[in-house]
Every structure is written in structure tokens, then in C-alpha cells.
Design brief:
Layout lengths: L3 H17 L2 E8 L4 E8 H4 L3 H16 L5 E4 L3
Parallel strand pairs: 2-3
Antiparallel strand pairs: 1-2
Helix pairs in contact: 1-3
């Protein structure tokens, strides 16, 4: 089982980069299969590049730093 606090700590490391571009990210949930659900906020919420940010940024970093993370998905708006 993935420790939600570990995921939150890694998101804190990512957050300044997103905030520099006017966006942010909030942790919504971590399930038993390793799927992390996040909510993109600010400029990230409506950005056409947000899916790329999730896949190549947030997901990659979380998979590298938190054992057991399998995927990062966006919360339904």
C-alpha cells in the first residue's frame, strides 16, 4: 500500500515549478492499485499542455520517488 504522506511530500517538491507558471496541483486520492488522483489548479486547469504535464512531469516524478505508484490521473472536474 502506498503511503499518502509520501505522495503529498513529493507533490510539495513539484509544486513550485507549477506555481511558477501560475498553476498548482492538489492530491485528491491514492488507491490500492497505486493510482494517484490529483486536481490541477490555476493556469494548469485549463492549459492545453496539462495532460503532458501530468504524464511527463507529475507521473514520472511520482513513479521515480514513491514505490508502488502506477499511474497519475486527473480528478473529474
Amino acid at each position: 500500500m502506498i503511503n499518502k504522506e509520501d505522495v503529498a511530500a513529493v507533490l510539495e517538491l513539484i509544486r513550485p515549478s507549477l506555481q511558477a507558471d501560475g498553476g498548482d496541483v492538489a492530491l485528491v486520492d491514492v488507491d490500492d492499485e497505486g493510482v494517484v488522483t490529483v486536481e490541477l489548479q490555476g493556469a494548469c486547469k485549463g492549459c492545453p499542455m496539462s495532460q503532458m504535464t501530468l504524464a511527463n512531469g507529475v507521473e514520472k516524478i511520482l513513479k521515480d520517488r514513491v514505490p508502488g505508484v502506477t499511474k497519475v490521473v486527473r480528478a473529474q472536474d
